[in-house]
Amino acid sequence: QVQLVESGGGLVLPGGSLRLSCAASGRIFSSYPMGWFRPAPGKEREFVAAIKWRGGTYYADYADSLAGRFTISRDNAKNTVYLQMRSLKPEDTAVYYCAVGSGHGTVQDPTAYDYWGQGTQVTVSS
């Protein structure tokens, strides 16, 4: 059984930054993708970012709408994934969910993930 523990959410002013962390425990391999999602109108989960380790290289994917404001990183030794968020906007307000996949499928697709965290609340407001 894989468990994900998230932290780092909170209240931030527009234009501010937050760093989310997701620590995974259980049977996880470095090749498994890890990603971040958030609810969106008409969708249970909207893709935010994902990262996977292939052939000694990290590959990261981001939602186009984020315009480079978010950066995902991963520490394989700690089985931890991070999401550095900057230039935050009120529209970024959401519960952010961490997920780990099986290593198959498209990382932007939430069905490619098998385990989900409890979510951490991010509120961007003045």
Would you give an account of this structure?
The protein is mainly beta and 126 residues long. The protein has strands spanning 3-7, 10-12, 18-25, 34-40, 43-54, 57-62, 70-75, 80-85, 94-101, 113-116, 120-124. The strands form 2 sheets. Strands 2, 4, 5, 6, 9, 10 and 11 form a 7-stranded mixed β-sheet that branches. Strands 1-3-8-7 form a 4-stranded antiparallel β-sheet, with no helix packed on it.
Structural category is mainly beta
Query: SSE string, helix = H, strand = E?
Result: EEEEEEEEEEE
Number of helices: 0
Q: Calculate the terminal CA-CA distance, rounded to whole Å.
A: 40 Å
Question: How does the major sheet shape up?
Answer: 7 strands, mixed
The tally of beta strands, per DSSP, is: 11
Helix content estimate: under 10%
Q: Can you give the mean pLDDT?
A: 92
β content, as a range?
over 45%
The whole-angstrom Rg is 14 Å
Shape: globular
Low-confidence stretches: none
Brief descriptors of the model:
globular; 126 residues; mainly beta; four-stranded antiparallel β-sheet
Short synopsis of the structure:
The protein contains no helices and 11 strands.
Write the layout of secondary structure elements.
Layout: E1 3-7, E2 10-12, E3 18-25, E4 34-40, E5 43-54, E6 57-62, E7 70-75, E8 80-85, E9 94-101, E10 113-116, E11 120-124
Parallel strand pairs: 2-11
Antiparallel strand pairs: 1-3, 3-8, 4-5, 4-9, 5-6, 7-8, 9-10, 9-11
